[in-house]
Write a structure and sequence with these properties.
Layout lengths: L10 E6 L7 H12 L3 E4 L6 H11 L3 E6 L4 H14 L7 E6 L3 H10 L3 E3 L5 H11 L4
Parallel strand pairs: 1-2, 1-3, 3-4, 4-5
């Protein structure tokens, strides 16, 4: 980085999709992202896929972190991805998922466009470093 350049702050939306009412993990990762110097927007609970897409587009986020523990990941996350594609925001958004997701479902989500799935117990530093390494250049 030259003397005249500033490092751009990574903007993240941490989102809770569907009827899942457990947000401790989302709050923990949101704090870890803030502590890492990221700008964080938290969606709150019980958001529809369309609401998450709108927030991601309006806030022009670099990273969309979806926390889901309800088991509806194969239904809800592809809807979010499709919405981002409709707005032309998919290519510029790193999509990560946190929660309990079986291995077979992880493969499906990655094929759909999720960059990584982080399960319970993943060190926060691992998630932060993944984001720093993979956030799309703009």
């Amino acid at each position: 980085m030259s003397a005249g350049q500033e490092q751009r702050t990574i903007r993240c939306l941490v989102a809770k999709v569907g009827l899942d009412g457990h947000d401790r993990g989302a709050q923990v990762i949101a704090r870890a992202f803030r502590d890492a110097g990221f700008e964080v927007i938290y969606s709150g609970l019980h958001r529809a896929p369309e609401e998450i897409v709108q927030a991601a587009v309006q806030e022009d986020v670099d990273v969309l972190g979806i926390s889901i523990l309800s088991g509806a990941h194969n239904t809800l996350i592809p809807k979010v991805i499709e919405g981002l594609k409709q707005y032309g925001a998919f290519e510029d958004t790193l999509i990560i998922v946190g929660g309990i997701v079986p291995d077979d479902d992880r493969r499906e989500l990655k094929e759909a466009g999720v960059a990584e799935v982080f399960g319970p117990g993943t060190p926060m530093s691992e998630t932060v470093e993944f984001v720093r390494k993979h956030v799309p250049d703009r």
